[in-house]
Structures
1.
Amino acid sequence: MKIFHQALQVLDDVPAVVALVKDKLITDVDMIDKILADLQKTGGMEACATASRDGLLVRAIMQNEQYAESLAAMSATMLGAAEAAVAGLGLILLELEKSAEKLKELLK
């Protein structure tokens, strides 16, 4: 019964929770916008964007904003390819170490 009363209390507070989450999201978006604007001021920067690892655009500052979503998607693809390359490199280095150990054994 106690859990039921707690659930009802949470439901009563839903508008307050939604307002809190909305305020936090607005604050986060403002912070991201400020960081992107600061990055763009560094010089030589034509476009800035933040995106999720899945390639979903969060925010962008670009002259041609129609390309922002494509940039986000391509960046995620490049990140995935780089991670795969590094993982593959780790396996290659491990195999090289094993081969070096075998050669040492043979040369004894």
2.
Amino acid sequence: MAKDVTLSIDGISVTVPAGTLIVDAAKKAGIKERVVGFKVNDKAPARDGYMILKDGKPVGKAASGTYSPSLKVGIGIAHVAAEHAVVGTKLEMEAHGRRVPIEVVKLPFTPIRHL
């Protein structure tokens, strides 16, 4: 069994003991980003790579997005600086040269109803 494992997160590599939780490894590596869900307060769909902004300054990037027929809004997942990962935080997404308002929301986007 391996004693150490090397993980690479966003281009930063860190070696940790086998069995270390990914969150602990990310903290050790100095990763200061969080994955968040967001809703789009506009008709523009979120797409991979779209810049996420706060007060005009980049704070992250969208990883994916689509329109949710059940919620009737655009939704997406983004990697953002930890200080902007609080539910309810108002941010902007740069889409096709314009800034679109988005809001960090709790995941999952819809309640789990099959239990």
3.
Amino acid sequence: MGGLNPEEFRARLKEADANKDGKISKDEAPPLIKDRFDRIDSNSDGFIDDSEVKQMLDRMRDAGGKGPPGGKGPPGRKGGDEPRRPDADKN
């Protein structure tokens, strides 16, 4: 899931929603989310819903824009931003 923008991240979670009930159970959660499930499930109902996904993405944005869990790159660089080749702007 690393390197996804918020819309792509939400789409991947929607794909993981096996029973299409609009929320993710721990069993449905992808591995990177499963490892953080209890923290993301802020109301402790056993599911991650869209409002909790939004809260998680807002927290990550406020913490430095690292992107969804597993984002590429070192701290401080936005998740998914690939390093540019030094000669990328040269013709």
4.
Amino acid sequence: MDWDNVVGSLAEDVVYHNIPMEKVQGREAAAAVITGMRPTAVFWEMISIAENGDKVLTERIDNFDMPTFYPCDGDIRDRKWQDQGMA
């Protein structure tokens, strides 16, 4: 994954809010969150995308290849997964 290219494409004043994580502002803060998970590869499957003024909303499936496992709400054995507190 070319993380320098990913980070370089962010606006200096980007606001990054990946629910349920804390909202961060600024390229450096967003880069720390995104690269902090240390994925070796990421594939984002876009389902829908919408904008309203200065807001962009996405419905997507995030596919991460990660060297370690991070727990989430749900049971991966049953393929039940939620990271926003919604069923």
